[in-house]
Every structure is written in structure tokens, then in C-alpha cells.
């Protein structure tokens, strides 16, 4: 059997360049120079699969924590501490979302990117 590998993780959005810029600030990753207006990739400096953004003119943001428009995916981003993760997310342009009531003491915090995709900043567990 042929060994498979992840080629990219693609996120739908109305403006791929703008959302890639946000995640580039958040992660410290650079935009691939072969990107186009409709498909922008961020290069993982550690050599993993790129994070890609594709134009979807019909994009509708998720309504998390409600599910009128469900989140189709979310990213978990590892940080040393929740405070560090919060500062990084807010300074990149994220919005903090309500913490699930049953997870107030969890090692993650929930945020939304500029077009509404939820993502979590997850503190390393010791």
C-alpha cells in the first residue's frame, strides 16, 4: 500500500490573502510565493503540511457555540501558557469566544479568526 501524507489543510473564506495574513501573524508562518488570489498557502517552517486558504464567495461564518451554521473544522494551537496564547491571539486580530461552561478550568481558550472560524489556544500540559 502506498504511504499517504497530508498535502494541505484548506480553510474556506471570502478573502484568502487576508485570512492567511491573520494566521501568518498568529503562527509566525510565511505565505508561499506561489500563492494566488484564490488559493493562499502558509508554509510550515518545520516542514509539515501547509495551511491553505481558498476563496469561497458564498462563505458564511459559523455561529459557534450555536450550530445554525456549524463549524466545519477548528484548529488547536499549542502554546506554553493560556496567557501567552491569549496575548498572541488578540494581538493577531482574533476575538475571544465564550468558554464552554463545563470547561471553565480547561487548558484551552476559544477564539474566532477574523471571518468567524473558531480555534483554540491550548496550553501545554505538564
From TrEMBL:
Domain VOC: 5-124
Keyword terms: Lyase
GO molecular function, one term: lyase activity
A matching Pfam family: Glyoxalase_6
Name of this protein: Putative enzyme related to lactoylglutathione lyase
Amino acid at each position: 500500500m502506498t504511504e499517504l501524507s497530508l498535502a494541505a489543510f484548506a480553510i474556506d473564506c471570502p478573502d484568502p490573502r487576508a485570512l492567511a495574513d491573520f494566521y501568518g501573524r498568529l503562527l509566525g508562518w510565511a505565505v508561499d510565493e506561489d500563492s494566488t488570489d484564490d488559493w493562499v498557502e502558509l508554509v510550515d517552517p518545520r516542514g509539515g503540511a501547509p495551511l491553505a486558504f481558498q476563496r469561497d464567495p458564498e462563505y458564511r461564518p459559523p455561529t459557534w457555540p450555536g450550530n445554525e451554521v456549524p463549524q466545519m473544522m477548528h484548529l488547536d494551537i499549542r502554546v506554553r501558557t493560556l496567557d501567552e496564547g491569549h496575548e498572541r491571539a488578540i494581538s493577531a486580530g482574533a476575538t475571544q469566544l465564550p468558554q464552554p461552561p463545563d470547561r471553565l478550568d480547561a487548558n484551552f481558550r476559544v477564539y474566532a479568526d477574523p471571518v468567524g472560524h473558531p480555534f483554540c489556544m491550548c496550553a501545554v500540559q505538564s
